[in-house]
Write a structure and sequence with these properties.
This is Methyltransferase family protein. With 237 residues, the protein is of the alpha/beta class. The protein has a single domain, classed as Vaccinia Virus protein VP39 (Rossmann fold, 3-Layer(aba) Sandwich). It is built from ten helices and seven strands. It has a seven-stranded mixed sheet with strand order 3-2-1-4-5-7-6, sandwiched between helices. The chain is globular, with a radius of gyration of 17 Å.
Length: 237
């Protein structure tokens, strides 16, 4: 593990409890969950075997497990996984994802192990986009799908301590940003190229304008601004 990744993992581990608390207590939490549920439902087969990469506190993994999918979530931030397991323990056994330490860029699973690979706000913080997407494609069974939800978070870089907090700016300092090129992405077309280069077909980008409209109307987390999110899908033939 690189020093940069260790620093980022420490930041996200420290934030795990507050991050999870906000996802379930913010005023639009139930509406946001419904939007994600409606977005993902038609994209995945019933009772799919799903790998959720960069799972964090398990937001997407838990949502999918609650919908009847068999979910494994991986992350390199141990503190985030601890929080994800705490949440899972409050659910019935059949709705509990499996959480493991694992690298989203190079998940350590056999080829063709999953029906779907999912991520939520992970693409922007990957050090090697093409390597990661190729790894996800490798893990899919024929007909399997990659579903990545993200946004153009910081096309101008991360510069304002007042907006994002000193701890965030320290973790994602100028050196880190230069090593995480997706921080500066302002168009999902670059992700589309990575999906196609990995051999995925039927690659589509759909903007989640219902989520964006909700954020514009109701506001987002302190220090953040509404950002228009999108979902990218690609299928392994």
């Amino acid at each position: 593990m690189t020093a940069i990744q260790s620093r980022l993992d420490a930041y996200w581990s420290d934030r795990a409890a507050s991050y999870q608390r906000y996802t379930v207590t913010n005023p639009t939490a139930s509406q946001r969950r419904q939007i994600f549920e409606r977005t993902l439902e038609p994209l995945l087969p019933a009772s799919a075997q799903v790998l959720d990469v960069g799972t964090g506190t398990g937001y997407l993994a838990q949502l999918l497990a609650d919908a009847g999918h068999r979910v494994t979530g991986i992350d390199t931030a141990a503190g985030m996984l601890d929080e994800a397991r705490r949440v899972a323990a409050t659910r019935p056994a059949e709705h509990q994802p499996t959480y493991l330490l694992g690298d989203a860029t190079a998940p350590a699973f056999a080829d063709a192990s999953f029906d779907a690979v999912t991520s939520r706000f992970v693409l922007w913080t990957l050090p090697a986009r093409d390597t990661a997407v190729a790894s996800w494609a490798r893990l899919l069974r024929p007909g399997g799908v990659v579903v990545a939800i993200d946004a153009a978070h910081f096309p101008n870089g991360i510069t304002d301590v007042d907006d994002f907090g000193e701890a965030f700016l320290t973790a994602y300092n100028a050196d880190t940003q230069q090593r995480l090129p997706n921080v500066f992405v302002d168009d999902p077309a670059v992700y589309v190229e990575s999906f196609r280069a990995a051999g995925l077909t039927d690659v589509t980008v759909t903007y989640l304008d219902n989520l964006y409209a909700l954020d514009l109307a109701e506001g987002v987390a302190p220090g953040h601004a509404p950002i228009r999110p999108f979902v990218i899908t690609g299928t392994r033939r």
